[in-house]
Amino acid sequence: MLRDLVFASLLVIIILALTYLTYSGGLGDLPPRDVRVIASNYLNLTYNQGITWLWAASPEAVTAIVWDYRGLDTLFETVVFYGAILAALTLFRSVSKVPEFVSSAGLSLVVKRVTAIVTLAILAVAASTALHGHLTPGGGFQGGAIASVAPLLLLVVFGKQFFIERRISYSKLLTIRNASLALLGFTSVALLILGFLTGFQAYIFQNQAKTVSTLSYPPYLLDVPLGGSLFFFNLFEFLAVASGFTLVFTILLSRDETLRKELEGEELGY
Amino acid sequence: MDIELIKFMFMLTTISLYFNVAISLYGVVSKTNLVKKLIALTIFQDTVNMFTILIGYKLWRPGLLLQPPVLTDLSPTSETLREFVERSVDPLPQAFVLTAVVIGLAVTLFLTTIILHVSYHFKTVNVDEIGRSKRVYIHEEAV
């Protein structure tokens, strides 16, 4: 009890100190009157056809920052994402080996019909968010997160039987996830490999041609901006996020007996 | 709208976010239930994301164009680009937050599976009880 009291009073003191600092201008002018120089540089360069050696060929600045200007950061964040999902799957690794025989009827007919319509809408929104990520606000991360809601809904409303009948198995989802993450890595070094084969200079994570290296992803598809590698990164990240989350959802919504099998022989504690 | 009022509201939002951080940290530390700890952690995470977005915000003032900050012209002149830069907010915090949200969701799912594991193993999610049962077990082993 005393521990709680000390901790609470400590937090109150910290809040009051932070409030005083913020009020006396510790964070500068709030709200800022203008964006920082680095932000206006990004906004200026992302689709500036006059400076094509610094552009990202995408009118959407956020996606350009995520996958081009600060692409290496995002690659490592994707590694964290990969590790977190992998750890979750490893904790219940036997679920993949246990064939489930469930005869769940799911929820009522009305809920099923409504869910069927809503699921289509969710998938359409997710696909447009991910595939248009280089043109309008959105991208692979957001699209994947939206798309993973659809299988979650289907699992709850139709039951796991629905997935088993349609042969959407654990190993297939795992294959999609691993393949798209491998392709994501390949996209980041594709130009480097091409440069190595053809004798040109190129960089890791190169998107558009620079002054010293002339290799480049196509900036346009017909007459629409493609954003070079941004489109491919968005597509593969979309697949990776959607399949990764679906995998964890299928595990979390498994039967109790299946999940308990994981702990057999561990009665003596950690 | 009065600029002074906007500034006051902005300050109020910032300070309320500090309160949110404090309350969620209190939840993480002092709650004994692991699920409650997880909920507090997600609140903390969302507050920090919100704070980051807020940092990139720009004060609207009379004379600024009220247009969505999207580049609609696919062959922009320098004039359109200048207007686009003028009406946009900072894209950098948004780029950080959008990856943080998805990775946060992945980490939350990981923690959920861990808590599920713990609840099956110890038949409770109360950290005090778990600690006590482990102590009893170690004591028995020593005897």
- The total number of structural domains of chain B is 1
Category from helices, strands and their pairing of chain A: mainly alpha
Q: Strand arrangement, largest sheet of chain A?
A: 1-2
| Oligomeric state | heterodimer
Given helix and strand content, the structural type of chain B is mainly alpha
Q: Would you count the extended β strands of chain A for me?
A: 2
Task: Work out the largest interface and the residue count of each chain.
Answer: A-B, 70 and 57 residues
Discrete helix count of chain A = 11
Q: pLDDT under 50 segments of chain A (min length 5)?
A: none
Cα-atom Rg of chain B, whole angstroms? Answer: 24 Å
Structural domain tally of chain A: 1
Unreliable stretches covering 5 or more consecutive residues of chain B: none
Which outline of chain A best applies?
Answer: globular
Could you say which overall geometry of chain B the principal axes of the C-alpha atoms support? elongated
Largest sheet of chain B: none
Kindly state the percentage of residues in helix of chain B.
over 70%
Tell me, rounded to a whole number, the average pLDDT of chain B: 86
Please identify, by name, the CATH architecture of chain B.
Orthogonal Bundle
Topology, number of strands of chain B: 0
Please write out the topology.
The complex is a heterodimer of chains A (270) and B (143).
Chain A: H1 2-23, H2 37-45, H3 61-69, H4 71-91, H5 109-131, H6 140-147, H7 149-158, H8 160-165, H9 170-198, E1 220-221, E2 224-225, H10 229-252, H11 256-261
Antiparallel strand pairs in A: 1-2
Chain B: H1 3-30, H2 34-55, H3 78-87, H4 91-122, H5 127-142
Helix pairs in contact in B: 1-2, 2-4
